[in-house]
Specification:
single chain; mainly alpha; 0% strand
């Protein structure tokens, strides 16, 4: 069971790393990025992805600590 969970988390982390190139922009951000040009638009998109990823990291950390405390 522990091995299966490790494989699952490894696959989840790997898929998250691959999805960083996704175009995560709202309509207002897309319009702003088009006006800025190619270079700044990539930076804006990367910033949006990092802002969206932070809550998942926090919830994952809390869940991991909760799981550890229940395991003991």
């Amino acid at each position: 069971m522990k091995k299966r969970l490790q494989v699952y988390w490894l696959a989840a982390c790997f898929s998250i790393l691959l999805s960083l190139t996704a175009g995560a922009q709202c309509s207002i951000c897309t319009k702003t990025a088009q006006q800025l040009g190619e270079g700044p638009a990539k930076g804006l998109n990367t910033g949006i992805v990092y802002l969206a990823f932070t809550p998942f990291l926090i919830v994952g950390y809390i869940g991991y600590k909760w799981w550890q405390s229940n395991k003991e």
